[in-house]
Design brief:
This protein is mostly helical. About 65% of the residues lie in helices and about 5% in strands. Helix 6 (about 150-175) packs antiparallel against helix 7 and helix 12 (about 280-295) packs antiparallel against helix 13.
Length: about 650
Amino acid sequence: MRRVLFGVLGPVAAWDGAGEPLALKGPRHRAVLALLVIARRRVVPVSRLVADLWPQPPDDPAGAVAAVRTFVAALRRTLEPDRPPRAPARLLVTEGPGYALRAEPEAVDAWRFEEAVGAARGLAPAAAADLLGDALRQWRGPAYAEFADQPWARAERSRLAELRLHAVEERAGARLALGQAAQVAADLDAHAAEHPWREDAWRLLALALYRAGRQGDALAVLRRARALLAEQLGLDPGPALRALEADILAQSERLDQAPAAAQRLWARTAAAYDREVPAGARARLESTVGLLRTLAVTGGTGLVAARRHRVAAAEAAEELGDPELTARVIGAYDVPAVWPRLDDPGQAARTVAAAERTLAALPPDGHEAVRARLLATIAVESRGVRGARGPQAARLAERLARGLDDPGPLAFALNGVFMQSCERPGLAARRDAIGAELVALSARHGLTTFEVLGHLVRLQARGGLGDFPGADRHAAAADRLAERHELPLVAVFTGWYRAMRAAADTRTPAAEAEAGYREAATLLDGAGMPGLSEGLLPLALLCLRVRDGRPADPAPAADFGPYEPWARPLLLLAEDRRTEAATALRATPDPPPGLLQEALWTLTARAALTLHDRRTMRRALTALTPAAPELAGPAGGLLTAGPVTDHLHLLTQALPAAP
């Protein structure tokens, strides 16, 4: 299949692999393409396309459907001109009730732009400025330019426009850190004037002017911002602008270019390291793991790269034939794990195998600290995997670590114990105790990332036990630590918790709860955690419907990812395909170890109740009974299907009457 590139950062367009524009015919052809791009590889039902293309119901609905099919056929001929007759399309595909554009992420300029903006957050200023500059150059005009007046494009246009403004300001901040104050001031002057409600633009402009030696102009800009905010929005400047004005008047040292100084220090230190430490020195491997550990907590591409290079470092250490060095290299990557489902099972399996080989190769006596770390590694990297080795490794790691006078191995071992504490529903209280020890231990010894982990564990557990005020306190504590120590991934978990918290309140309208989940899902874009993100939003929305006693929504062909076996019976029931639903329900396995077991069991229970499947009802009743004091889902801190007791009540009521 030839390569096709799509552009929506400007007029909707497409190009072939050589950069030649493709003829997309009329405006409705381009509108169909735009709607499919907005759907981000998901299926858009034909009925949705008709509703968006004809804001007023068409006089001839069947004719409108036929027209959409004609538009799609024409687009296919343009996008895949070499496709043999009757061969299935591979780019603009038919699936279920509609169509999907299966373009790769790098083939759409808007998707590339979003990925670049997310990736820039974890980079040094020079790399971030370059990446954001390249990303901003992709814009050819307003997003979806020719559809500015279409309701279906409005939200996506606004979102991308906001992201572009954010990228402009992030690039300005990176360039300020590099000492380019004069250039930043010139670039930001028009930007701030065009968007007077953006206080960060005024702040950066004033700071750039101050660092360029123009203190008077900086103060004038702040006065101008104050006047515009008052005239256009009726607002006073926020705390950041007020604090900057006070600092400029006082010529505070806080306004010095500390980030640039730090960047220069990093460059000098790295150069000295390269110069003084031999290329083949074993110390380089251990130093590399320290860098990877820091890189991992930045999220996004940093986390993905850290996972990949971590495996390579372990295997490189093994090649040197020194088990003690290999043990230190493997065990030093003690990045806290929050979610008990693997992001990359293949990489995890390689890490576990290397740790097992190293354990076997260590001398039989001593080395308790590195043994504890290797066992903790096995426990953490075996999470969500059925089998005895993960729990056994967690117990051994904890026992060894408690015999050491070192909080680091114990915190890592407790992480392994937490990862292996999801073998069945109803264990939120046990995990709460683990989280409490992690918080106390880490706070005493300055183990910041493990202190954050402890708060997130307690957030999940207290939510599962229905103690939302307690969970709120741990979410706030985790956010404070994350802000102070630059840990961006924490906001993914606390943001999802707050969406779930709102959805758990039955007074929240269903549409508002669903919107909260959809907004939380944007936090996962570019976060580098597929083990968390895959299928999570569709599952959250389905659990909300189950909690409210509503049928599944069969319209969108949502990708439930790893949760598809538990969602499928309900989706088939929503389409009144009872025979197929019954077959799917009989094939539904027990949920794997993890924090969403209760939620998945409730889906199985609801399908069994609808289909009067007595055997499956008994399975669900047995599994959920230990979790009676809990809510279904909040033990994961992400979604809810309501109190477990509600589902148990329905099961016990139905079982005597079931045939």
